[in-house]
Structures are given as C-alpha cells and as structure tokens.
Amino acid sequence: MTIKIPVEKIREGMKLALEKCNEHLVAAETLISKGSLNDAVALIEFAIEEFGRAVALKEILKKSSNKVEEELFKNHEYKYKKAWSVLPKELKTIYEGTFDVTQFSKTDFDVGKETISPRTRLDAVFVDYDVKLEKWKTGVRADGETLKHVIEGLREGLKAFVDC
Questions:
Q1: Which of 20, 21, 147, 55 is nearest to 94 (CA)?
Q2: What pLDDT does 97 receive?
Q3: How does the average pLDDT of the chain come out, rounded?
C-alpha cells in the first residue's frame, strides 16, 4: 500500500532522516566512550534505519513520484535493506569471535559473530532467555573499536549520499 506525500515534503523527510541518523551516531559515540556498548549498538541500528529511510525517499524523488510505500514507516527490514543497498556490507559486523565456529563449541569458546539486524537491536536492549543454552541473554557481543569503525563507515556513507 502507498501513501501520497508532496514532493517538497519527501525532500524534507529525507533531510530530517539524515539529521536523525547523525544524531543517533553522535549519541552512540558518547555511549561507546562510556563503555555502554549495547546501548550504542541500538543507536547505530536506529541510525541505519533512518539512513535507509533517506535512501528510499531519494529513490522516490528520482522517479519523480509522490507515492511512498507504507513499509517505510512500519517495516524495519525494508529500511535495513535500503540502507545496505548503498552501504558497504562489511559494516554489518559488530563483533567477530576469536575461534572458528565450525571447529569450536559455542558454549565453551568465543565463536561466531554479531551482525547488525533488527534482532540484534532487540537483543542489545532487552533481557531474553536462550532455551538451547539454558542461559539468560542480556545483550550482544560488541567491540568498541569495531563500533567506531561502523560509525565512521556510516558517516562516509552519509557524506557520499549527500554529495551525489
């Protein structure tokens, strides 16, 4: 389903989404400096969604259309997909384990990786119980330096987006 938004309002929405994206990145940097990595992950993910919103709105403008998919306001995956259509895919990884997941046990070794996704955002901010591991989950694995790299990459993506 689509909604009609005047072209000048689409431009305004794109500008506002980019500003909100930057606000989230600034706040995430502050949280990283304080050691609050889970909260920083959540804000980085919000920044990615807002960037995805801006990408979608720009695509609509290029088509000279005023029809906006309702997904833009309701669907996290839709906005992530739009963001990753222009951002480097390596920015998705926020943590990579030391050991190979195919060779070592997840319960005993630091294996696997954490990647940006709507699920990761939820895991970063809520308490959940993992039935398979019989453990409470209270966050995600994240590395501060990696998060800083993701923020730098997002800023480069923002600059390239605005410049074109």
A1: 147
A2: 67
A3: 90
Cα distance between residue 7 and residue 32, in whole Å: 38
Alpha helix positions (H), the chain = 7-33, 37-62, 71-74, 76-84, 118-125, 144-163
- Closest by CA to 3, choosing from 74, 52, 55, 51, is 74
Residue with tokens 């005047």: 6
- 102 to 92, 95, 105, 114, 132: CA distances (angstroms): 21, 17, 8, 16, 18
Query: What token pair was written down for 50?
Result: 């807002």
Q: Identify the domain containing residue 111 by its residue range.
A: 2-163
Q: What is the DSSP letter of 3?
A: E
- The number of residues in the chain equals 164
Q: What is the mean pLDDT of residues 128-136?
A: 91
- Among candidate residues 132, 124, 128, the one with its CA nearest the CA of residue 106: 132
Contact call for residues 77 and 45 (beta carbons, < 8 A): no
| Of the candidates 24, 50, 49, the residue with the CA atom closest to the CA atom of residue 116 | 49
Q: What is the mean pLDDT of residues 3-30?
A: 96
pTM (2 d.p.): 0.87
Domains in the chain, number: 1
